[in-house]
Amino acid sequence: MRKQLITLVALVAIPALTFAQTADEVINKHIAALGGADKVAAVKTMDFEQSMSLQGMELTSKSTFVIGKSFRNDISVMGQQITNVIDGDKGWMVNPMAGGTAAQDMPADALKAAKSATEPPMFQLAYAKANKLPYELVGKEKYNNKDAFNIKLTRPEGVFNYFVDAANYQLLGMKGMVNMGGQQSETSATYSDYKPVDGLSVPYTSEVTAPQIPGSITAKITKINVNGTIDPSVFNKPK
User: Residue 165 has what pLDDT?
Assistant: First the structure.
């Protein structure tokens, strides 16, 4: 009887052990699908331009990254430019659509929620593993009619779920909860149309929702540059 009980306990423990190992396997295969850990780590800067559609409006956007340090995004809409910048532990923004043309310091909660913005979103699982952030495999489920692994990732700014294609290990999408104005709000994104760029696999199409966006934005990359020279002054707050 005792031997049978030990065997039963061992059989119950095996799936849990396999489950824990599988989370690492999924992320490792995802990183390989991106181009490999060395390729991702070699990316020090990135900038790309996008055409965007929001509730029938056509917009353009440019995003500039110094990986893990600085980020700038400029969106042109209806003849106006909205700018959001993260530079180290500081951030600022200009939003004429909200009635102001002067640069304003980013609120503390918005700055915390945007910390991961200094990392290109399509590579964030690779950065999470490199930075030893905690993650776990929630399970396997359908995501946009595809079999996907659901990876739960805990970041300083919130908890996020990343959905990795079970067939090719590309990132299909993500969703998460962030604190904005003292309230928990959901943000999400889907990724598709992967193309090779300098040995990396990059999604050219994304659909994004965020607390500050009235609806979802569909964005398509029109130009991308990896490891180009970026003038650090673009992150300076105007005086």
Answer: 97
